[in-house]
Amino acid sequence: MDKFIVLEGLEGSGKSTILKHIKSFFLKKKQEEIVSFREPGGTLVGNKIRDILLDVSLKNDLHEDTELLLLYASRVELIQRISFALEKKKWVISDRFYWSTFAYQGGGRNISFNKISILNKLFVNISPGLVIYLDVDPIVGLSRIRKNSLDRIEKEDIDFFFRAREVFLDFVKKKDNAYLVNSNGNLSCVKRKVLEIIDLHSRKIIENL
Questions:
Q1: Radius of gyration of the CA atoms of the chain, in A
Q2: Environment class of residue 87 by beta-carbon count within 10 Å: exposed (0-12), middle (13-18) or buried (19+)?
Q3: Distances (CA, A) of 164 to 10, 61, 104, 116, 176
Q4: Where do the domains of the chain lie, and which CATH numbers do they carry?
Q5: Where are the beta strands (DSSP E) in 10-98?
Q6: Contact (CB, 8 A) for 29 and 76
Q7: Is the preceding omega at residue 138 within 30 degrees of 0, hence cis?
Q8: Of 16, 52, 135, 176, which sees the most CB atoms within 10 A?
């Protein structure tokens, strides 16, 4: 799935902003079609599930296993959309994919990695050709978020995000197709580095055709 690119990172890492820059990069290459999605969400069903998962009023009323299963229900719907786009030879950019589940539900909530892996094997039949992890210190990332509009996940304690970060860091070390970009500093530097990675990846694909 060479044309499938995933952005991963904690809250406040700049994923949404960088995704816009990546889309602009491809739109300038007029021969390249691109679609983007976000997790959870990206479909009608997924967006409704997203509303549940981020609902602050459910903070103490949503069991961790229910949360996990809802995430995979949303992902199953999204994978159909991603697969269809890839079949049409389009580039696909996703704001989060299954790394986030291992990081947030596995690391953050201490759900068994084995349990998550079983769901992954059952329901995830595609893999990204490139993963870019935007690494931010949880304290820095959360300081960038408006405190009067925090969602259910953003309201978690800081240790939750430090545990999640450790999982992300472990994943990026083990994957040959993954890059870590420091997003603690200037956004323009982050943008430049990400676009360099994207450009190199796209050139490799063209060379291998």
A1: 17
A2: exposed
A3: 8, 22, 5, 14, 20
A4: 4-207 (3.40.50.300)
A5: 34-38, 91-95
A6: no
A7: no
A8: 135
